[in-house]
Design a protein that fits this description.
The complex is a heterodimer of chains A (201) and B (505).
Chain A: H1 3-18, E1 22-24, H2 25-39, H3 41-50, E2 64-66, H4 67-81, H5 85-101, H6 106-109, H7 114-132, E3 140-145, E4 149-155, H8 161-174, E5 179-185, E6 194-200
Helix pairs in contact in A: 2-3, 2-5, 5-8
Chain B: H1 3-70, H2 74-89, E1 93-99, E2 105-111, H3 126-135, H4 138-145, E3 152-155, E4 170-178, E5 187-194, H5 202-294, H6 304-317, H7 320-352, E6 360-363, H8 364-374, H9 376-379, E7 383-389, E8 394-397, H10 399-416, E9 421-430, E10 433-440, H11 447-450, H12 470-480, E11 484-490, E12 494-501
Parallel strand pairs in B: 7-9
Antiparallel strand pairs in B: 1-2, 1-5, 3-4, 4-5, 6-8, 9-10, 10-12, 11-12
The chains are: A alpha+beta (201), B alpha+beta (505).
Amino acid sequence: MNSTSYLSILIIVIKATIEPLRMKGIVFNQLQEFVEIHHGVMAWDQAILSCDLPSEGVYVSTKSYQDSELLTLVGYFSDALKTPAADITRAFGDFVFDRLLTFAADEAKNAKSLRDFLLMVEDIIHVEVSKLYHDANLPSFGYENNEESLVMIYRSPRKLCYFSEGLIYGAARHFNETVVVSQSQCMHDGADSCHLVIEFK
Amino acid sequence: MSSEHQQELEAYRRVLERERRARKLAEEQLEDYSREIYQSNALLAEQTIQTQAKQQHLAFLISVAEDNWRSESVADLINVYLQKSCTFLTAPVAVYFQIEVDLSLSRLQIAKPTDLFDQPCRVADKKFINATLEHMDLAKIRSDFLSRDRGALFSSMEYMPEAKAELAAQIYLLPVFHSKGKELNKLSCMCFYYEQLDDVDLMKLETIEASHSIFSVAIERKKAESALKKKVNELLESNTHLQQIQQQLIESEKLASLGQLSAGIAHEINNPVGFVLSNLSTMAEYVEDVTKVLTPLYDESLGVTDRISQWRALSKEYEMDFLLDDTNKILVSSVQGLERVKDIVSDLGSFARMDSDDLVTVDVNKVIHKALNILKNELKYNHIVELDLEDDLKILGNDGQLQQVFINFFINAKHAMPDGGHLWISSKKVRERVVVSIKDEGHGIAPEEVKEIFTPFFTTKPPGQGTGLGLSISYSILQRHHAKISVDSVVDQGTEFKLSFIPSD
């Protein structure tokens, strides 16, 4: 790696530290759809009215919005529905999987099993997403591939491990497989990464 | 409408409003995108044009470099370059000239583009060019451009002391090179004439700038090349001359050795001639005696018995038996003596003949014998010649020249043994060569002198005995025979020369 590459990496790191994390509008569009299906248009409208959002609830899929808007919305629904935020995030992840799958490379879409698919996330899917949204802030995954289970080691300043859990459930549904996802350690408990343990049934 | 419905309607309106704003934003973004795409397309198109131009420039540079190698002469090189560059520039004409030390113009060359329309162009006319060059201040041009590496664009009027509007043209002048050294004030340059400023393509002129250093290097190389050619021709000429001189030297050395040998050869001829003469006078006396003895046989006055008895008495008196026997001997020895004279004269003839130096098949042993024949008188008193010659040794050679070589080696051997000694001469086939060895038991050659012996004018003999050319000429003759020479010499013991020839078959 030459000095220019190091420099550009340094700039990205500095930018990430100073600038708030941003999320693509498509996530908010999906959340809106999710809320409207399960709780109606009024529930969504109420949420937008209640939360003080810089975007005023106007989301364009290709634009970026601050992460905090999503957290605010999730927090609001958690209060309104009296449901833990983790459960909402997980359910949303499950819901959004099919929509996100369209971005995945053909190779990932044609994966033989859930395990194969999950193993492709880091190297194939994220690369494809980066091509589409070059400014997307993607998490990184490490793997521990065991016979009975697969451990995905999640690292992201967003700490959206529950969202990842939901995505894994969504993927399992897509592949007609049954899994149980749990976390042996979590960044929300002070760990440096979340270990998502996927047990195949 | 119930308030619930009212609320729902309000919610939908707000949702719709947000959707509209989102769509508007999306449309704006789309517009931004299309603008970006348009701009990058425009940029791409521009870059494509630039790339094409660069390609053109590159193609020009490459073709110039190629032509530089192909051109036959300097004038040809200049002409091709002028033509290529004004075609490339789409300039109407390109001119090359040299401003000499005395401000005169030389080497004027004019070229027009190869593929340009045949429209008559004012500035491309030869008369026009000559007129501008005549009216422009060449001294000023020279001093302005002498120290410059780059060209410059100017109006012809700028350099005219008396402005002539009819001679106005835009000229791009490029100094090709200035002569260094004593002709410091000489400037070669190349000009492109343009009708007007708008016709000038500055970017393409940059390419010409870039190419002109290749061009000036090519000219210098070409000049050096023709100078080299001239030198080579001179060398070839002097080489031919040298060969002729060498041939003459061989002949004169031959004559010189003939001169030195002439006394001996004369003696060698005189000897048999002398004894043949004395033989003949003896024979005259014998004939007289025999006539006397035979006289009674023809006397008609005597009877047959008397004739015979008188003849018998006279035969006894004049020792007729001895006379007849000796006559026989005298005749045989005379014939032998004359044969020797004949041989010497014929060998001398083949030695002295100024024949061509073609190599033909010769019998090396015969040549050795002929050489020894001429030297017979030189070697017969104190020297013993030992011959060991293998039969039938044919080599490619020149009879007369080889004789000269052998005579030279044999004489040298004799001079090395002033008090006499053995001279061993052998010839034999060794592998693919015919080797002649000439060995003496003379004073030998000092090791430090061995490398000098084939050098012209090197001699250890006292003045008058040798020209110092003998061995050097022998060496050059042997080289023409593609023969190898080796010397093996020990001081006070003797010297052996080995000559190895190519067999003729």
